[in-house]
Amino acid sequence: MATKTKVSMFKNKYILLQKFWIKIMFLSSFVKGLGGFRIFLGKAFSILMTTGFNGVKLKTVYILHHAGILSNPVIDGKNYKKWLKLFGLLTDKDLINMRLSMINLKIQPVFSVIMPTYNSNPKWLKEAIESVINQVYPNWELCIADDASKNPKTLEVLNFYQNKDHRIKVIFRSQNGHISLASNSAVEIASGDFIALLDHDDLLPKDALFWVANAINKNPGASLIYSDEDKIENSGKRSDPYFKCDWNYSLFLSQNMISHLGVYRTKILKEIGGFREGYEGSQDYDLALRFIEKIDSSQIIHIPRILYHWRIHPFSTAKVSDIKPYAVINAQKAISDHLNRKNVSATVEILPTFMYRVKYHLPEKLPFVSIIIPTRNNKSCLEKCISSLLSKTTYHHFEVLIIDNNSDDFKTLDLLNSLKADKRIKILKDTMPFNFSAINNRAVSHVRGEHLCFLNDDTEVISPDWLGEMVSIILQPGIGIVGAKLWYPDKTLQHGGVILGIGGVGAHAHKGIPYNNHGYFNRANLIQEFSAVTAACMLIQKKLFDEVGGFDEGNLGVAFNDVDLCLKVRSLGYRIVWTPYSELYHHESTSRGDDFHPEKIDRFFKENDFIINKWGEIIKNDPYYSPNLTLGSEDFGLAWPPRINHSGSLTTEV
Fold first, then answer.
1. Which 8-state DSSP code applies to residue 485?
2. Same domain, 114 and 60
3. What whole-number distance in Å separates Cα of residue 322 and Cα of residue 31?
4. How far apart are CA 426 and CA 317, in angstroms?
5. What is the spatial distance between Cα 466 and Cα 562, in angstroms, rounded to a whole number?
6. 119-172, pLDDT tens digit by residue?
7. What sign has the CA pseudo-torsion 441, 447, 450, 453?
8. Is position 330 within any domain?
9. Which range marks the domain in which residue 25 is found?
10. 396 within a domain of the structure (yes/no)
């Protein structure tokens, strides 16, 4: 017994030593990803200069937690007040640097800030106007259209500021026409190169127009610019920051992600007729939908900074999302109009969260789908997978190819033999050593389908329309790959799209959130684009799969092959879409331990290094994830520090 105890103790110590070594390897890999220890130390010095010793402390804790050396972070990842104090507040030095850098701006655009008013609260109106007057960037005009206000205090404020600053223009409408017509009246007197939208009770931070001008200089062809936003109380307390991703068309059809601060090239805005009557409450959503039809997606620029403060008060949509139910209905109509103009056959549904779902219609002639399922000695999972697939799937135009990779379990072999009786199923033997990429690549040569659905044998269908939903999306122009929403059996989320950079290469967005959690600004429940999705359930057109050379079996036999495939497809200009309306269980264990076999550890790090060397820049700067959000977890917490500094250049969070 004593000998067994000693052996057990030695084994436990050996495992702990291996775990610690893996953590050191991860830490080394992160540092290597930054360019080596010399560059790493340079970045550390930069953090010291910008945030002081407290910032270095936070960053050190973050790195150790991210590498797994610390089991729990000792910082509150969602403490926005502390985050602002360290990284988000302008200093006098920042303002001086901005004024100096403006001298070197080759393009000096004039911004026409459009503001409709109607019986506005005088205090809030003053603060809104002052927030424009206080802009660091001076080339602006404020175009105010008063929509026949009856409140003398409102009119008094407008007259005062009109006389105070020659850049402030006010037009007084004789008849109330509501927000769309009032906004158009303000547009009529605008003479700037770009039009920025500002509500009469909201605020612009001092640097808002500076960063827009800076973005235009970096992107001279820009026609639509949008920023991040947060909310502000009357006390000045800021909360609820929405750190957005770069342009994400599918997400935009699900929510108005442009919103504030939205800046539009004046010429195009006037060409499309400005705002439309009948879309009040969502007139800016309708405007943006019509505007993007006239430009290329490369002309849409996102500034990953808070450049707009929504004021929270009892009658604001910043406070209560359903205070204006007509706005939600008008947004639905605006999205439908947009899709009709693009000849897209779809229905737009309003979600309980007051967001939107575009339900694309399938064509009369359904494309044939080949579902590829590799398996080995996994009878219980495979049986559940096939049973749910055949009994629940309402999209019937498919075949199933089960790839048996050297199964020798009698129960599994009996199941495979019994499945041969179903004409929809084909069993293929693959006797080569396990290589996930190679197994799937070889299977593709046997398919009959126009589209390939790669599916793990440990998945189980939940939503009967899972495949029809994915097919309806893959048929839309420019879509390369579609991924599904996968749940653990305990109804916590397993896969909600892949965020690059988390854990080194990437991790699953919102992993572990409960079933009734909508995620970061509802992103766990909205159709949207990601840089990658998991091959546990992935749909791709066969000819596109062949064009990019399939999975990389030479370098990525086990890990990251799905990420690599998605990035290859994206490099050709296609979009990767994830839909939450295609739901399956993924019976991957939520508590599966690490495999410490030296050979597998070595293989993992080789594959990890290969994909980082190949796609390093994209992995560091995922366009579908904000540099203000953490790479330390999948919960969309704040980055400490952010991977963007006040000078506007990107840094790397490790």
1. E
2. no
3. 47
4. 55
5. 20
6. 999 999 999 999 999 999 999 999 999 999 999 999 999 999 999 999 999 999
7. negative
8. no
9. 2-75
10. yes
**Number of domains the chain contains:** 3
pLDDT of residue 321: 47
Confidence of residue 320 (pLDDT cuts 50, 70, 90): very low
d(C-alpha 294, C-alpha 426), whole Å: 48
Residues 438 and 498 in one domain: yes
Pairing verdict, β 575-586 and 459-461: antiparallel
What is the chain's alpha carbon radius of gyration, rounded to the nearest angstrom? 27
Distance in angstroms (rounded) separating the CA atoms of residues 129 and 194: 18
Among 387, 393, 394, 410, which Cα is nearest to 402's? Answer: 387
Note the Cα 212 to chain centre separation in Å: 21
Of 273, 300, 315, which residue is a domain's last?
A: 315
* Structural tokens at position 47: 């953090």
C-alpha to C-alpha distance for 524 and 353, rounded to whole angstroms: 12
For residue 345 the two structure tokens come to 């056959």
My answer on whether 536 and 404 are in the same domain is yes
Percent of the chain with pLDDT over 70: 84
357 phi/psi in degrees, rounded to 5 = -120, 125
Query: Is-above-0.70 flag for pTM?
Result: yes
- Side chain identity, residue 28: S
Over residues 426-446, the mean pLDDT reads 96
Eight-state DSSP code of residue 638: B
111/39 same-domain check: no
Q: Looking at the structure, tell me whether residues 17 and 137 fall in a common domain.
A: no
CB contact at 8 A, 262 and 288: yes
Q: Is the pLDDT of residue 619 over 90?
A: yes
3-state DSSP assignment of residue 480: strand
Alpha helices in 121-219 (DSSP H): 122-133, 152-164, 178-188, 208-218
State which of 35, 52, 75 marks the end of a domain. 75
The Cα 616–Cα 504 span in angstroms is 10
Two tokens, residue 55: 């910032």
Pairing of strands 300-311, 356-360: unpaired
Residue 367 preceded by cis peptide, ω within 30 = no
State the DSSP code for 393: -
Closest CA to 345 of 331, 359, 356: 359
Q: What percent of the chain has pLDDT over 90?
A: 79
